[in-house]
């Protein structure tokens, strides 16, 4: 294939060759011997909300048993609170919600936005969000500042207009997007767009910069937010002796200095064996419990008791007005209540994480071994630029290829998140052509996890199925590398 001097030429060529890439991908799937009965029924991750993994046997049995019993929902909420307090301590509390995004919504509105009651006009409030991956989640609830970011989320998602992503913005709230020191925000992709490349983030220098931003915005600053992940591709590869990402500890300290809450979006993470709120110093951590934890579809907010009181009140579950420790009443965010089945599945998942963490950690170990073995076989030019990392927090294996771009030469194609929404992320759409349901694969970062037809009823890895998926990914990357001109 032709070599290109300019990035946009490479991506233009890839767009023109999508039919050829798809044809080769389908042929490669046949050559790999992927069984026809598996195609479209297994994939690279069970942690995508749009295609969640089948529930484990222990989750199903617990939910079925509870589903046949009369159980007040407040009792299940109290059981979740008890499990969280047993692990993290009595100074922490919890509130289950129907989704992780619901958890972000109620938390930001409770802790970051100005009060709605009282005389006079509302004052302006602002929170700081790192300019990092998945920005439309943790950074999508305020008007962007500085103005150069005002269109950064313009095409994100599938619904345009006032009630698309712009409709998430909360009352009199803006968000300061803080670029990270050491990060690179070059433009890539067929849907050409800035991408956060974060393996070289300097947490100390970034912390100094964010402190200055906080100081400049001190009169309107109401909070700080970031992701809760722990891998290099997400910018959290630098850790302390306890394994806690240094960046998160620095953000917690800055928030404490300015008396504002630090909220962590740990959607693709698990409580107890993942991000430790006690070590990071975060005020609130929010989880998507159906992703990595294996629960029924639901979210979970865990935080320090002081900030959890207004959050639980907003959800109508903090207690009756005449004095009780729990309720299931009406409030502004009762619309985000999880149902009985969601609560039962969440209780079962938390019990497993607390008492039998190996149910979730062993498949990660087994998957990491397969990923290492199969990527050892990839073209040496791609292999040289890979960083492969195991994460118990996300029960995932991260394959990052930022380092294929070096010395001013074009590297392996990087697809933007806008490519994902436009259907032009070939590392995702191409896997579909091979019969393998894809995973998150943009910003030079591929997140792989067990669960989607690659584990048995007990959640343990089925090796041959997992290996088919990884082999297919390796082959697709080689095909894309050839059509991009990166490989000879």
Automatic annotation (TrEMBL):
<protein>
    <submittedName>
        <fullName>Uncharacterized protein</fullName>
    </submittedName>
</protein>
<dbReference type="InterPro" id="IPR015421">
    <property type="entry name" value="PyrdxlP-dep_Trfase_major"/>
</dbReference>
<dbReference type="InterPro" id="IPR015424">
    <property type="entry name" value="PyrdxlP-dep_Trfase"/>
</dbReference>
């Amino acid at each position: 294939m032709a070599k290109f001097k300019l990035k946009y030429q490479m991506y233009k060529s890839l767009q023109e060759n999508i039919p050829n890439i798809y044809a080769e991908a389908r042929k490669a799937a046949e050559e790999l011997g992927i069984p026809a009965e598996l195609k479209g029924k297994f994939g690279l991750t069970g942690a995508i909300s749009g295609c969640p993994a089948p529930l484990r046997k222990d989750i199903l049995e617990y939910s079925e048993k509870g589903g046949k019993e009369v159980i007040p929902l407040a009792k299940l909420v109290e059981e979740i609170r008890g499990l969280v307090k047993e692990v993290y301590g009595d100074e922490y509390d919890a509130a289950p919600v129907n989704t992780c995004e619901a958890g972000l919504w109620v938390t930001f509105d409770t802790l970051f936005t100005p009060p709605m009651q009282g005389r006079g006009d509302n004052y302006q409030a602002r929170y700081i969000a790192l300019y990092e991956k998945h920005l439309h989640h943790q950074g999508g609830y305020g008007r962007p500042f500085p103005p150069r970011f005002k269109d950064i989320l313009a095409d994100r998602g599938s619904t345009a207009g006032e009630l698309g992503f712009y409709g998430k913005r909360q009352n009199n709230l803006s968000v300061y997007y803080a670029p990270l020191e050491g990060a690179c925000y070059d433009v890539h992709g067929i849907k050409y767009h800035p991408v956060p490349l974060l393996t070289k983030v300097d947490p100390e220098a970034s912390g100094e910069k964010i402190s200055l931003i906080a100081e400049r915005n001190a009169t309107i600053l109401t909070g700080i937010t970031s992701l809760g992940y722990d891998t290099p591709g997400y910018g959290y590869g630098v850790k302390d002796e306890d394994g806690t990402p240094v960046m998160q500890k620095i953000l917690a300290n800055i928030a404490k200095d300015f008396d504002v809450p630090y909220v962590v979006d740990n959607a693709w993470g698990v409580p107890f064996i993942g991000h430790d709120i006690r070590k990071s110093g975060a005020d609130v951590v929010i989880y998507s419990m159906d992703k990595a934890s294996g629960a029924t579809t639901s979210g979970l907010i865990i935080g320090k008791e002081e900030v959890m009181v207004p959050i639980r009140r907003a959800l109508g579950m903090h207690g009756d007005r005449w004095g009780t420790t729990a309720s299931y009443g009406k409030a502004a965010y009762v619309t985000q209540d999880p149902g009985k089945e969601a609560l039962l599945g969440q209780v079962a998942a938390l019990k497993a994480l607390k008492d039998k963490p190996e149910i979730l950690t062993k498949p990660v170990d087994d998957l990491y071994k397969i990923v290492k073995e199969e990527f050892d076989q990839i073209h040496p030019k791609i292999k040289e630029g890979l960083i492969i990392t195991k994460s118990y927090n996300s029960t995932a294996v991260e394959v990052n290829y930022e380092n294929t771009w070096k010395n001013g030469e074009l590297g392996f194609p990087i697809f933007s998140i806008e490519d994902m929404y436009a259907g032009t992320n070939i590392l995702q759409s191409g896997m579909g052509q091979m019969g393998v349901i894809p995973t998150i694969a943009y910003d030079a970062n591929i997140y792989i996890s067990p669960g989607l037809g690659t584990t048995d009823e007990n959640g343990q890895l089925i090796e041959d199925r997992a290996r088919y998926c990884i082999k297919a990914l390796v082959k697709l990357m080689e095909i894309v590398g050839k059509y991009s001109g990166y490989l000879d």
